[in-house]
Amino acid sequence: MTMLYVVIACGLLSVLYAIWATRSVLAADQGNARMQEIASAIREGAQAYLTRQYTTIAIVGIIVFIIAWWLLGASAAIGFLVGAVLSAAAGFIGMHVSVRANVRTAQASANSLAAGLDIAFKSGAITGLLVAGLALLGVSVYFWILTGPMGHGPTDRLVIDALVALGFGASLISIFARLGGGIFTKGADVGGDLVGKVEAGIPEDDPRNPATIADNVGDNVGDCAGMAADLFETYVVTVVATMVLASIFFTGEAAITLMLFPLVIGAVCVVTSIAGTFFVKLGTNNSIMGALYKGFWATALLSLIAIALVIVFWLGMGTEFQASDQTTFTGLDLLLCGVIGLAVTGLIIVITEYYTGVDYRPVRSISQASVTGHGTNVIQGLAVSLEATALPALVIIAGIIASFLLAGLFGIAIAVTTMLALAGMVVALDAFGPVTDNAGGIAEMSNLPPEVRQTTDALDAVGNTTKAVTKGYAIGSAGLGALVLFAAYTEDLKFFAANAQPGTFFDGVSVNFSLSNPYVVVGLLFGGLLPFLFGGLSMTAVGRAGSAIVEEVRRQFREKPGIMEGREKPDYGRAVDLLTRAAIREMIVPSLLPVLSPLVVFGIIYLIAGKNEAFASLGAMLLGVIVTGLFVAISMTAGGGAWDNAKKSFEDGFVDKDGTKHLKGSEAHKASVTGDTVGDPYKDTAGPAVNPMIKITNIIALLLLAVLAH
Amino acid sequence: MTMLYVVIACGLLSVLYAIWATRSVLAADQGNARMQEIASAIREGAQAYLTRQYTTIAIVGIIVFIIAWWLLGASAAIGFLVGAVLSAAAGFIGMHVSVRANVRTAQASANSLAAGLDIAFKSGAITGLLVAGLALLGVSVYFWILTGPMGHGPTDRLVIDALVALGFGASLISIFARLGGGIFTKGADVGGDLVGKVEAGIPEDDPRNPATIADNVGDNVGDCAGMAADLFETYVVTVVATMVLASIFFTGEAAITLMLFPLVIGAVCVVTSIAGTFFVKLGTNNSIMGALYKGFWATALLSLIAIALVIVFWLGMGTEFQASDQTTFTGLDLLLCGVIGLAVTGLIIVITEYYTGVDYRPVRSISQASVTGHGTNVIQGLAVSLEATALPALVIIAGIIASFLLAGLFGIAIAVTTMLALAGMVVALDAFGPVTDNAGGIAEMSNLPPEVRQTTDALDAVGNTTKAVTKGYAIGSAGLGALVLFAAYTEDLKFFAANAQPGTFFDGVSVNFSLSNPYVVVGLLFGGLLPFLFGGLSMTAVGRAGSAIVEEVRRQFREKPGIMEGREKPDYGRAVDLLTRAAIREMIVPSLLPVLSPLVVFGIIYLIAGKNEAFASLGAMLLGVIVTGLFVAISMTAGGGAWDNAKKSFEDGFVDKDGTKHLKGSEAHKASVTGDTVGDPYKDTAGPAVNPMIKITNIIALLLLAVLAH
Fold it and tell me: Where exactly are the transmembrane stretches of this chain (chains A, B) (predicted)?
C-alpha cells in the first residue's frame, strides 16, 4: 500500500502546479480600464450563475446525502459528499481562473500570439490538472482513510460501496453542471446571434448587443465549469469501476495490487501531463494546433514510458495474474492494454479533426452545400453528423476486441483507465477554448486594434476543434468503458446472489442476460430511448432559453433606442439574470431522467415479471443507453463542430466548386450561420450531456444493488 | 392444409378487387387536353425511371439468383425470384394506377371534395391491396407448390430456406426501391423548392419551374412504388419469420397448423381491408381524416372479429399448444396477442398524429420557433424529432412484454403478424397521398380554378399525416418483430448445431449471447452504427441530387430567359433524366451496406475469435441495428412530418404566442420552409429506408446460416 502514498503525492503535485500556474496567470497585465470593466462584468455574471447553480444542486445533493446515509450508511454518504464537493470545486476553481485569464489573454495577444497562447493555455492547464488531480486525490485519499485509519479491508463491500457513492456524487454534479451550463451558454449564443447578427446586423461580441456579456459568461460556466465537472466524473467513475472489477476478479495480494493499479496509472499520468504542458510552445511556423499537439503527444509518449516503468519496477512484466473468470494475463499484457487506450485516444483525435477541421471533405461539403441555401446546409450538416459516428465506433470496437483478447474484461478496464489518465492534458486543451473566446469578446468590446482580434480569433478557431476532440474523447471512453460498467453490475449481482442469506432479496437470484430473453431486449430498447428523449428535452430547453433572450434583446432595443446608436448602455445584467433563471429551471427535469429511469424500469419489470427479469432489464438498459448514446453524442458533437467551422470557412472567403468566392455577409455565409446556430445546442448542450447521462444510469444501477443487499 | 386454399382464394380476391377498382378509376374523366399533356409527362417520367431502376436491380438480382442457386439450390433461388418479382410488380402496378389516377383526381376535385377523395383513395387502395394480396399469394402459393405437388414436408429445411429466400428477394428489391425512389423524389423536391420558391420566387408546381414534372414523378416512384416495395417486404418477412418460428417451436400437426396461422390471419385481413375501403366516405363534417379513419377503424374492428372467428372455428379457443421452449398457450392467448398487435397499430397512429398534426403542441412549437428564425426552427424540429421516439418505443416495449407473457416468443410473432395484416388498409391510406399531391400539381400547372387547388390541397395535407403514420407503423412492426427475427436466427442456429454431422461447420457450435460476452457488445455497437452511417450516406445522396437539380434549373433559367416570362417551355425531360441517373447511381453503395455488413462482421470475428464468437457478434448485430434503427427511423419520419406541417400552418396564417399573425411569405414562413426542406430527406429517404435495411440485415444472417449448413 506504499504506492498509495505515491499516488496521493502525485495528486498533490497537480494542486501545486495549479497554484503556481494561477500565480503566473494572475501576475500578467490586466489591460486598460475598459477591458477590466468588461471582464469584471463577465466575472460577476459567471460567479453569480455558478453560485446559484451549485446552490440548487446542493438542495438535491443534501436530499440524496440523507437518503444515502439512511440506505447505505455513513461511509457511502460521505463518499457521495466527497465526490460532489470535489467535482464542484474543480469546476469552480477552473472557472475562477478562466474569468481572470480572459482579459489577460486579450492584453497579451496585443503583444504577440505566443504570449496570448501562453496565458490561455496555462489557464486551461490549471482546470485540466485540477480535474485529474482532484479526482485522483478524492479516490485515493478516501480509499486510504477507509483502508488505513478506519481499518476496513480494501475489498470489503463497505469500501466498494463508498467508492461507488463517490462516483455517484461526481456524476450527479456533472449532469446538472453540464446541462445547466450548456443551456445557459447556448441560450445566450443562439439568442444573441439571432437577434444581433441576423436582425440588427451587428457583429458578434458587439457591445451594443445586450446579450453579449451573457454569451461570454456562458463560455465560462458551460465550456469551462460544465466540461470540467463532466471529465472529473468520467475519470472518477472509470477508476472506481476498474477498482470494483479488480476487487471482484482477484483475491489476496493481487486484488490489492490491481485495485491500486488504476490509481498508479492516473498518478504517473498527472506527472507526465504537467511535463507535457511545458511542450506547448509556438514553433517557427506559428501553428497553434501544432503547439497544442506537441504538448499532447509529449504527454502521450511520456505516459507510455511512465506506465512501462511502473509495470517493470512495480507490477512485474512477467507476473501472471489469474482472474476469477479464468482469464490469465501478465504485466506485459496490461502494458499493451494501456497502449491500446492511448491508441484509441490518438485515433479519436485524428478522426475528430478530420470531421471538424476546415481543410477536409466533411466541413468543405457543408460549406459547398451552403451555396445552395439554408436547407441544403442543414441537410449536409446532418449527413456529416450521422456519418461521423462510424469510424469512432469502429475504433472503439477494435479497442474492445484487442484489449479483451490480451487480458479479458480487466484489460478493457485498464485500456479505458489509461485513456482517461490523459484527462489532465486533454482538458487543458479544451479549457483553453473559452478563455480565448472570451479574450476575443473583450478585445471587440473594448475596441482594441483589429490585429488583437485577429490573434484571439486564430486562437479561438483552434478551440472549436479541441472542444470537439474532448467531447469525442469523453464519449469514446464511455463506449469503451461500457463493458467495464456492465461487468461491475453483473459481477456485483453475482457476488450478492452468491452471498445471499436465505430469505433476503438476492436469495435465489439467477439472471439470464441472453439476447433471446425478451426482458433483455426490452431493457435495450428502454435504455436506447433515453439519449433520444434526453436530447429532445435539452434541445427544447435551449430553444426556449434562446427565444427568451431574443425577446429580451428586442425589448431593450425597442425601449432604449439609444443602444444601437451607442448613446445608451444596454442592461447586460438582465440578460444574464434571465438566462440564469432559465437554465436552472430547465436543467432539473432532463437531469432527473437518467437518475430515476433505472429505478422505474426495475420497479415496473419487478412487479410484472419478478426480480430476475427486473435485473435483466436493468442490466440491458445500461448497455442500451450506451449503444444509442454513443452514436447520438458523437453525431451531435462532431456535426456541431463541423457546422461551426463551415461557418468559419466563409470568414476568409470560401471558394466553391465552380470557383466563385463567397465572402462574409453573402447568402451562402448566412446559410452557414443557420447551420452553426443549429449545431450550437447539438454540440454544446445535448451531445456532451449524454456522457454523464450514461454514467449516472450505470452508477444508479450499482447503487440500487448495494441498497437491495443492505 | 385445406386452409391454404382459403388463403390463396383470399389473395386472389385482392387481385380481383384491384382489377375492379382500376377499371373504376380509369373510367373517370381525364380532364382537358392541357391536364392530359401534363399527366402524360409525369407518367412517362415515372415509367422511364422505374424501368431503369428495375433494370439496374435486375442485374444485381440475377447475380444473387445465380449465387443462391449455387449455394442453396433451385428451390431457394426460385423463392428469391418469386419475392423479387412480386415486390417489383406490386410497386409497378401501384405506380401504373397512381399516374393515371392523379389527373382524374384533379378533374374530379373540380366537381366535389367527395369525388376527388373517392378516386384518390381508390387508387391508393389498389396499391394497398396488391401489396397485401401479392405478398400473401407469393408466400402461400410457393408454400403450397413446395409442400403439395413437390411433396416436401412443411417443416423441411428446404421449405424453410425457400421461404426465407423469398423474403430476401422482397427485401433486396425493397432497399433499392425505397432508397432510389427516395433520392429521386427528395432530390427533385429539395432542388426544385430551393431554386423555384426561394430563388425565383415562384410557387410550388409552377409550370415555369423545370423541376416541377420531376417533382411529381418523384411522388409516384418514391412515395408510391418505393413505399409499396417496403411494405410488401415487411409483410413477407414477418409472415415468413413467424412460419419459421412455428416450424421450429412445434412438432407434428401443431407445427403445420401454426405455420398456416399467420397466413390465415393475413388472408382474413385482406378481406376485411377490402370491406374497410367501402367505409371511406366523406361525412357531413367534410373531414377527410375522419373519412380515412372510418375506413381504418372499420377494418381494425372487422379484423378483430374475423380473427376471433378463425380461432373459434379453426384453431379452437381452448386448444393448448406447447412450444419447445416450454411455453404453453391457448387459442384465446393467441387472440389476445392479435388484439395487442391491433392496439400497438392504433396507438402508433394516435401518437404519430399527435407529433405531426397541425393542432398539437409539437408542430405548434416548431411554428412558434420559426418566428425567431431559421436556426430556431431547425433546433425545435430536431428537438421534436428526438422526443417523438419515446412514446412509440414505450408502446412497443409494452407490446413485447404483454404478448410474451401471453404466449412467449410465438405470441410476439402473432402480435406483429396481426399488426401487419392491416397493411392493405394502411398502405391504401398512404398511397392516396402521392395521387392527391400530383393532382394538386396538375391543377396548378393547367391553371384550373383556385377552388380545385384548394380541394386538392386539403386532400394533400391529410396525406402528410397518413404518410408519417405508415412509416411509424412499418418501423414499429420492425421493433416489435425484432425478437421474432432474432429468435428465428438463434433457433436456426440451435437447430443446425444439434443436427450437425461431425466435422461439418456447425459441429460443436455453442453460442453465448449474454451481454457480458464482449463479442455481443461489439455486435450491438456494430449493428448500432449501421442506421447512422446509412442515414448519413442517404442524406448526402439527396443533397447531391438536389444540388444537381439546382444547377440544372439555374442553367435553364440562364440559357432560356423566356421561361420566367412564360414565353419558352422549360425542358422538363432533362431534369427527370438527370435525377434518374443520379438516383440510380446514388442508391447502389448505401443499399449494399446492410447486405454486405453481416458477412463482413461474421468473417472478421470468425478470423479473430472463432465461430462461436462470430455467431454471437452477428446475432447481436441484428439487435443492435434494430435498437438504434428504431429510434433513428422514428425520429426522422416524425420530425420530417412535423416540419412539413409546421410549414403548412403558415399557409392559413400562424398566430404566434404574442398574437401576431404570420402569413405565407413572411420571414417566419421562410424559416419554416428551411425546416421543411431539411425534413424532406429525413422523412422520405433516410428514415423510411432504415426499415428495409433492418430486415435485410436479418435475412442475410438467416441465409448465411443456411449456406453454412449446406
Answer: 51-72, 79-99, 119-146, 158-177, 235-252, 259-280, 295-317, 329-351, 390-416, 472-489, 519-537, 588-609, 615-638
Asked whether the CA dihedral B332, B336, B337, B342 is positive or negative, the reply is: positive
What nine digits make up the cell of A36? Answer: 477590466
Average pLDDT over residues A563-572: 83
Interstrand relation of A328-330 and A654-655 (parallel, antiparallel or unpaired) = unpaired
Integer Cα distance of B414 and B408 in angstroms: 10
pLDDT band at residue A297 under the 50/70/90 scheme: very high
Q: What is the pLDDT of residues A664-705, one digit of tens each?
A: 888 899 899 899 999 999 999 999 889 889 989 999 999 999
Name residues whose C-beta falls within 8 Å of residue A19's C-beta, 6 or more positions apart in sequence.
none
Chain A 17-46, CB below 8 Å of chain B: which residues? none
| Phi/psi-derived region of residue A280, left when phi > 0, alpha when psi is between -120 and 50, beta in every other case | beta
| Residue A523: half-sphere exposure toward Cβ, Cα within 13 Å | 31
pLDDT at B157: 87
Contact A439, A88 (CB under 8 A): no
A468: which 3 cell numbers? 470537439
Adjacent-strand bridge partners of B662 = B654
pLDDT digit string, tens, across residues A132-173: 999 999 999 999 999 988 888 888 889 999 999 999 999 988
Q: Looking at the complex, does the CB of residue A376 fall below 8 Å from at least one CB of chain B?
A: yes
Q: What are A646's three cell numbers?
A: 463551415
CA distance B352 to B476: 11
A-B Cβ pairs (cutoff 8 Å, strict): 273
d(C-alpha A117, C-alpha A295), whole Å: 13
Q: Return the DSSP state at B221.
A: I
Percent of chain B with pLDDT over 90: 50
Indicate whether A510 pLDDT > 90.
Answer: no
Q: Is the Cβ of A114 closer than 8 Å to some Cβ of chain B?
A: no
Q: Which of residues 500-519 of A touch B (CB under 8 A)?
A: 512-516, 518-519
Residues of chain B below pLDDT 50: none
Residue written as cell 460549406? A367
Q: What is the ipTM of this complex?
A: 0.93
Question: What is the per-residue pLDDT across B225-244, written as a single tens digit (0 to 9) for each?
Answer: 888 998 999 999 999 999 99
Give the pLDDT confidence score for residue A383 in this predicted structure: 95
The predicted pLDDT at position B388 comes to: 94
**Domain extent listing, chain B:** 1-709
What is the rounded CA–CA span in Å between residue B256 and residue B693? 30
Q: Do B401 and A608 touch (CB under 8 A)?
A: yes
Closest CA relative to residue A188, chosen from A687, A686, A685: A685
Q: Which chain A residues are Cβ-neighbours of B683 within 8 angstroms?
A: none
Q: Report the distance separating Cα A447 and Cα A452, nearest Å.
A: 10
Q: In chain B, how long is the greatest CA-to-CA distance? A: 80
CB-based contacts of A79: which residues, under 8 Å, 6+ apart? A142, A161, A162, A163, A164, A165, A166, A169
For residue B506, the model assigns a pLDDT of: 87
The end-to-end CA distance of chain A, in Å, is 29
